[in-house]
Amino acid sequence: MAECIYHQLKSQPTWILILLSLGSISLLKLSFSIIIWVYVNFIRPGKNLKKYGSWALITGPTDGIGKAFAFQLARKGLNLVLVGRNPDKLKEVSESIKSKSGSTQIKNVVVDFSGDLDDGVSRIKEAIEGLDVGLLINNVGVSYPYARFFHEVDEKLLSDLIKVNIEGTTKVTQAVLPAMVKRKKGAIVNIGSGAAIVIPSDPLYSVYAATKAYVDQFSRCLYVEYKNSGIDVQCQVPLYVATKMASIKRSSFFVPSTDGYARAALRWIGYEPRCTPYWPHSILWALANSLPESAIDAWRLKFCLAIRKRGQLKDSKKIE
Q1: What is residue 47's DSSP assignment?
Q2: Other Cβ atoms within 10 Å of 134 Cβ, number
Q3: Among the options 52, 146, 205, 208, which is catalytic?
Q4: Does 313 have pLDDT greater than 90?
Q5: Sheet holding 231-236: strands in order across?
Q6: Using the 8-state DSSP alphabet, how is residue 269 labeled?
Q7: Residues of the domain holding 154
Q8: Does residue 65 sit within a domain?
Q9: pLDDT, position 255
Q10: For this UniProt entry, which segments traverse the membrane (predicted)?
Q11: What CATH number did the domain enclosing 209 receive?
C-alpha cells in the first residue's frame, strides 16, 4: 500500500508535489496550534501564586474585574492591598472578603488616580513597606461614558484617560517593582483591552484604545527586561466582560461575568506575556484575525456610532 502511494506520488509533476508538501505542512501547523490551544485553555494547571509572595496589590478593586480578582486571590490564600479612590467602597469590599475568607489580611489605600497621583503613590509605598508583595494587578482604568469623536472629548476626560490608564499603571508598577527585583520573584499583570490589540481600530474610543496600546507595549518591554530576574510580566487582553464600564449587565457565552473572567485569568498568570484568559474570547480573536481589516473597521464604526446615538439620547433626557 505504502509502496503504491509512493510510486503514484513519484509519477506526479513537481508542482503538484510542492503543493502537497505545502498543504501537509500547513495542516500539521494547524493541528499543532489546536493541540496547544486545548492544552493551555483546558489542561495546563495554574501556578501557585503564593510562591511569588504572600501579598497581592490590586488597583481598582471596588468594582468589576478588580473586585473579582480580589475575591479570587483571597480564596487562594493571599493577603491583599486594595487601592481605590472611594474609602466607603474599599471598606465594603474588605468586609465582604473577610466574611468569606476570614484569615485574609487586608490593607486599604485611598488613591484618586485622576487626582494627586504622586501623593497617592507615596501612600502606596508607605502601605507596602515591609510587606512581601509578590503580585501586582494593574486593573484601574477609565473609558468614555459613551462613544464620541475625538474632537468631542473634553479636557477632563482626556486628562483622566491619560493619567489613570497610562500614568497610574506606570507609577504603581514603578513603586512595587524594586522590592520584587530585590527578592528576585514577583508577577505583574496589566489589564489591557481587545480595543487596542484584537481589532485594528476602535473609532470613537480612540484615546482609550491608544492608552491600552501603551499598556500592552509597556508590559511586553517589562517582560523582556525582567524575565531573567524571576519576575513574570503579563498583559491580559479581555474582550467584552459584563461590567459597568462596558455597560453590559448580563453575562453570556462570549461575555463572561467578572468572576468568570477572574477565575480564568488566575490560571494564566506567570505564563505568556500577552494572553486572553477567557477561552471563548480567543475564538473571537481568531475570527478577527481572519477577516479583512477594512471590514472590521466598517463594522466597528457602525457599532460605535449606534452607541454614540444612545449616549446622546441619555444625555438629552438628563438635561430635560
Answers
A1: P
A2: 23
A3: 208
A4: no
A5: 106-110, 79-84, 55-59, 133-138, 186-191, 231-236, 274-275
A6: T
A7: 52-310
A8: yes
A9: 96
A10: 15-40
A11: 3.40.50.720
List of residues 6+ apart from 173 with CB closer than 8 A: 136, 138, 188, 190, 218, 222
What DSSP designation does 163 have?
I
How does DSSP assign 50-75, residue by residue? GGT-SEEEEES-SSHHHHHHHHHHHH
Number of domains comprising the chain? 1
Question: pLDDT tens digit string along 173-184?
Answer: 999 999 999 999
DSSP 178-194: HHHHHHT-EEEEEE--H
- Joined together, the cell numbers standing for residue 52 give 511569588
Q: Is 208 a catalytic residue?
A: yes
**Residue 243: inside a domain, yes or no?**
yes
Residue 6 has pLDDT above 60, yes or no: no
The answer to the question of residue 217 being in a domain is yes
pLDDT score recorded for residue 76: 96
**Does residue 110 lie within any of the structural domains?**
yes
pLDDT, residue 319, reads 46
pLDDT at 144: 96
pTM of the model: 0.91
What does the pLDDT average to over 93-106? 94
